[in-house]
Amino acid sequence: MSGEKRSRLRRLVQRISRSDAANSPVPKTAVVVFHKADGEVIAEGVVDTHTTVLAAAAQLEVDFDHFCGGQGACGTCRLKIVRGSTALSKMESKEALVLGSRAQSNGDRLACQARVMGDVEFTVPRWF
Ligand code: FES
Q1: Residue 89: which domain range?
Q2: Pocket perturbation via mutation, ligand 1, pick of 63, 65, 76, 79 by most ligand atoms within 8 A of CB
Q3: Which atom of ligand 1 is nearest to the CA of 72?
């Protein structure tokens, strides 16, 4: 990774950390970063808040499984939150049921159900 890219990522991480700490109103846009499991950045970009994570991924050309088409029924769109867990919409009972308690405690969310409310980073499934 180049020094410029590392510096840019560091600024993004700092911005996300500040976002975690603040209980500020929802901004109009947010930075979303998708990583591979080894930390390599797949895509990063700015999206409108209230967008589902699945739609944000599509905007940033990150493709992963979502077999039920975003109905919150299959669980294949599961992602792990790296930073910014408070920058997502609250988990509804349907999502909680599909994820189960273990996935929830691991910091997983369903991309088709969670909405971006602030800066956030994810690790996409290992099969990406
Ligand atoms: S696409 Fe099926 S649960 Fe999200």
Answers
A1: 3-123
A2: 76
A3: 3
Please report which confidence band the pLDDT of residue 10 belongs to, taking 50, 70 and 90 as the band edges.
low
At residue 37, does pLDDT exceed 60? Answer: yes
Q: What is the pLDDT of residue 128?
A: 45
pTM across the whole model: 0.81
- Number of structural domains (the chain) is 1
Indicate which residue's Cα is closest to atom 3 of ligand 1.
72
**Would you call 9 exposed, middle or buried from its count of C-beta atoms within 10 A (0-12, 13-18, 19+)?**
middle
CATH number of the domain within which 102 lies:
3.10.20.30
